[in-house]
Each structure stands twice: as structure tokens, then as C-alpha cells.
Amino acid sequence: MDRSWRALAAVVATTLAAATLIAPAAQASQATQSTQSTQSTQSTQSTQSTQSTAESAATAAATAQAQASAAPMASAAALPAAVNVPAPGTYAGPGFDACSAPAPDLMAAWLTASPYRAVGIYIGGVNRFCTQPQLTPAWVSAQQAAGWHLVPIYLGLQPYCTTSNKEFRFTSANAAASGRAAADDAVARASALSLERGSAIFNDIEAYSTTDPVCRQAVLTFQSAWTARLHDLGFLSGFYSSLSSGVVDQVAVYGSTAYVRPDYLWFARYDGVATTLNPAIPSTYWPHRRIKQYQNPALTGGPETWGGKTLEVDRNQLDVTPMPATAFGDFSGNGWSDLISRQTATGYLFLYPGNGTGLGSPTRIGSGWNGLDSISRLGDFNRDGKEDVLARDPATGALLLYRGTGSGFASRLTIGSGWNGMREITPSGDINLDGYPDLFAVAKSTGCLYYYRGRGTSLLPGVRLGCGWNAMSELVGLGDFTRDGRIDLAARTTATGELWLYPGTATVLGARSRIGTSWNTMRDLVGVGDFDRDGFTDLVAIKSATGELLRYPGRGTSLGTALRIGTSWTGKRPIL
Question: What is the pLDDT of residue 22?
């Protein structure tokens, strides 16, 4: 998207203001899968992305100052009724981007006469140099209402090794701070345009030299910080760059937990081929979340005319769909699964925000929790839009509901008594599909498994499902692991370390299958929802010997290779 071919003033653009289950032992013969020892930890790299030091105040201030300017008003024009949806939505087909947002009459003419249904819009950034007289909240709402898919672009700081003519650049020393500051500004500008939370904002990194390894590392750091911060703020991250520089570097670290991966990929390759496929990008990377820029005006021969309206554009091919929702585990409400942990020495409760790749810096959300046990996350038990937490008071046997607020808890409610006779108190999600999260628990004296239906502020009496469960431990609700519309459960055979999947059915749970071995080396198994939002729910556990926190990606009927998302978890207990 290097616009140097346009004869425009060399000034920074005016940008927008602000920003019936049988006993487990009897089911051993029903294992349908060969053992898959997902326990061999093949962690790629330690998580670093969002737990870095605080950004440089000077860099943030300089960036904000360079980006600050007032939004011009658009001229009056007849516009369709307003509507706002997360961008870019679901679309497969041709699109274009232009230096300035086109006038409403051109957009209307092109909607009727051209093949295009998507348009890239430059919402801000210190290196954006085209004026935007049309780009207002009313324009955004009207174009979405008309049927256009908007692709927000942010042309901010470029790497110091850029091969473009962009003036404002970042260095290896300030890459992380600059990435976060840019994300803050991008969200402010997107919000000022009434772009909905959940929209993807594409960070435009023009082509850069691949002969400087330090600079290439800086680009990865900048983009990771940008992505993590966008996730914190409830937006999705897109990355635009040339196939030969930025894209190959992102592909190289796709499976790494050292960098927070962008959610959408937009690659430039001017070969005239309208496809989002390329041999350099594996088909499993960013599936249905890709855009290709395949022609610019130098290749097309100049401006295009449709419906009597002419404009100079880049041509793009899109294949985009929204990312799957995390399903559960999103305590903070930003769209990503988080992790809650209790520090055993102090009783403090900490929230670790998830970003799809790893965990951010913890925030203390409670104290005095060392007097409680069987602490677990219920999901939105009372259906107020916030995730809740359950705990037992071992002194009294009371079962307590802590209603989440997104940043802490409201006053607790007692929703049960006599729970000292139970173990493996396990939230399951909505088993019976009535809209309320439910609960499993094992009676210590009999080893029988009970199912408790949630009612928002209480639990219905337990229903016995089967006995023989004293041989099992680490029960964990996985959500809809098998993607059949039913909630599933996992449990470990304590003596052997085998991990079993119990699929949800219309009669609660079905025949189990083995999905892992050697799990007796792990503790605190936790279902975290769809952590990376790939459409499959995942599992987190701590390796007892090392204190490493590992995420096992769900695969529907099995677990993928473990990824290390944290270290030094000795003395901490993640909350189920």
C-alpha cells in the first residue's frame, strides 16, 4: 500500500480525533482411540509477548503528539440508514483500497456497477498522508448499511529498515512501546468512527529489508505488542505487509508463543492473480482470514471507472470470516479466554488476561481466598453477562457463588450446604441446554458422580449418573470439545495417568475415549474455552516437576502438542 506513486503533499495526514454414563471402570473396553501421548511438551518458546515492561512514556507521548489532529467534516450527502457491525465481517470476493475514503456518490455508483464489495479505509497513523474529508462515523455507518465490507487500515510507524519513503519510524529499542501506543491510538480512532468492538484493524507495515535480523525482530516485537493491546481493548489484529518481508517473518513464527499472532493476514504480491492462496503461506495458517493485494495502479494502467465514477485504487481479493467466539472463560469481557489463579501462600486471586497466544500481566482481583477450596469458574451462572466463580468453605461446607463484575466480584451468595462430602466439584457448562451452566461432583463416600443443574442463583438437587469415580481425578469441563453442540467432560485415571474424554449427549454423557497418557505428571487441569479462537476448545495444565503452564490445543477428538504459555507456576493454582 505504498502510496508514493501518488502526487500528494509530503505532509502527515489529517487524522480523526481520539481514539447415562456407566461406571468408569466398565468403560475401559470402550476406548475408541489409540493413545495419544500429548504429554510430551514440545513448547516452542516461553511466552513473552504481553508480559514485557511498561512502555516508554516518551515514545508514547511522541507518537500521540504526532498522530493528534482534528477530523474534518464530510459534506452533506444522501446516505443509507446507519448500521454498525464488526469489520470486515464475512466476505469472499474482490475489494479495493484507495488513499482517501471515496465520496458517497462514488460508493453508491461502484456498489451498483463494479464487482467490488469491500473497501480498505485508512483510519489513522503518523504515516497516513492522504486527507480524509469523507471519513466520518456517518460515512462508516452508511457504507456498512449499503452492504460494503470495510477494512480499517492504520498506517503508523514503520521499521527503521523500511524500503519505503515513510518518514516516521520505530527502532528495535522502542518497538514494543511503539506497538502498544499505536494500538491505543488505532482503537481511539476506530471508536471515533463508530467501528464496533470486535472489528479487525490492519497495521500497515510496508516492505522492509530482510538483511537486517535486528530490524526483522523489531517488526515482530512491534506487531506482537500491537496485537496484544488490541486484544486487551476488544479489537482484532490484522497485519498488512509484502509477501517477501513482513509476511514471511510472520509465517516463520506462526506456532511460537513468543509473539502474539495477528488474527488476519493481508499480503501484497503484485502478480495479477486474484486469490488468497500462496505456497509461502500454509493453508492452515489464517484460514478464511486472508486478503491479498494483487494489483496497484501501476499494473492496472491507472484509474478505474464504474457507474460513471472514476478512482485510482489497489485491487484486492478477500476471504474473511469472523473469528469463532471463545465460548467461555472470558472474565474480562474482551473476547478472549483469560485465566484466574490463586496464589497459595497469600490467598490472593489474580486475573491473567489471555490474548490468544499467551497471557498478559496479572491483576489482583481478590484476597482472602486461602480459606476456601474447590474454587472454580462457572461461566455466566446468573446470566448477567459476566463470568462467575464458585468456591466451597471447608469450615462449613457452604457452596458460595461469587458474581463476577469483569474486574472483580460483587457480594457472594450461598447456593448450597453440606458440600464437604463432595470432591471434584466441576463446572461443566450448559449440559442440558437450558441456558444455565451446570455442575458435576463426586461423592467421597461412594465414588458416585452427580449432576447438578444450574438455576442462576441456585442448584437443583443432584442426579446420580454412575459410581466408581473414586478411581478418577482432575475432572474438567471442556465446553463443546467435539463440536457437536453438546458440552463434554474430561477426567484422569489416577493410577495410570490416562486422560479420558466423555462426550456430552442427550442423556448427559456418552462412552468415553482415551485422549492422552502420562497425565499423572500434571496437576490443575483447566478448560479455558477456545483460547486461540480457532473453533476448538483447549486445555491448560501445570507440569508438576517444573511449574510450567502448558496449553493443549483442542482438535475435536484429541489434543494437540503442548505449548508453554507460562513458567514459575509452582505455588499457583489456576482456577477451573
Answer: 30
Q: Other CB atoms closer than 10 Å to residue 68's CB: what's the count?
A: 13
pLDDT tens, position by position, 218-274: 999 999 999 999 999 999 999 999 999 999 999 999 999 999 999 999 999 999 999
3-state secondary structure of 181: helix
DSSP 270: -
C-beta neighbour count of 461 within 10 angstroms: 7
Instruction: Provide CB contacts within 8 A for 433, sequence distance 6+.
Output: none
pLDDT exceeds cutoff 60 at 563: yes
Dihedral sign of CA atoms 92, 98, 104, 105 in order: negative
User: What's at 127, amino acid-wise?
Assistant: N
User: Which residues have CB under 8 Å from 54's CB, separation 6+?
Assistant: none
Each domain of the chain, given as residue ranges in start order, spans 90-320, 339-574
Q: What is the CATH number of domain 90-320?
A: 3.20.20.80
- Judged by phi (left if over 0) then psi (alpha if -120 to 50, else beta), residue 66 lies in alpha
Q: For residue 1, what are the contacts with CB-CB under 8 A and spacing of at least 6?
A: 97, 120, 153, 155, 204, 206, 240, 268, 293, 314
Are 4 and 158 in contact by the 8 Å Cβ rule? The answer is no
Residue of 20, 37, 144 whose CA lies nearest to 80: 144
Instruction: Tell me how far apart the alpha carbons of residues 113 and 117 are, in angstroms, rounded to a whole number.
Output: 11
What is the pLDDT, as a whole number, of residue 83?
Answer: 61
CA angle 525, 527, 529 (to 5 degrees): 160
Q: Given this structure, which CATH class describes domain 339-574? A: mainly beta
C-alpha 80/C-alpha 58 separation (Å) is 43
What pTM was estimated for this model as a whole? 0.83
pLDDT tens string 78-89: 444 456 899 999
Note whether 293 and 316 are within 8 A (CB): yes
DSSP string computed for 522-562: EEEEEE-SSTT-SSS--EEEEETTT--EEEE-B-SSSB---
Percentage of residues in the chain having pLDDT higher than 90: 80
Q: Which of 124, 121, 104 is nearest to 188 (CA)?
A: 124
Angle made by CA atoms 503, 474, 453, in degrees to the nearest 5: 55
92: left (phi over 0), alpha (psi -120 to 50) or beta: beta
For the chain, what is the radius of gyration of the CA atoms? 26
Give dist(CA 259, CA 256) in Å, integer: 6
Beta strand 169-170 pairing with 158-159: parallel
Is 90 exceeded by the pLDDT of residue 70? no
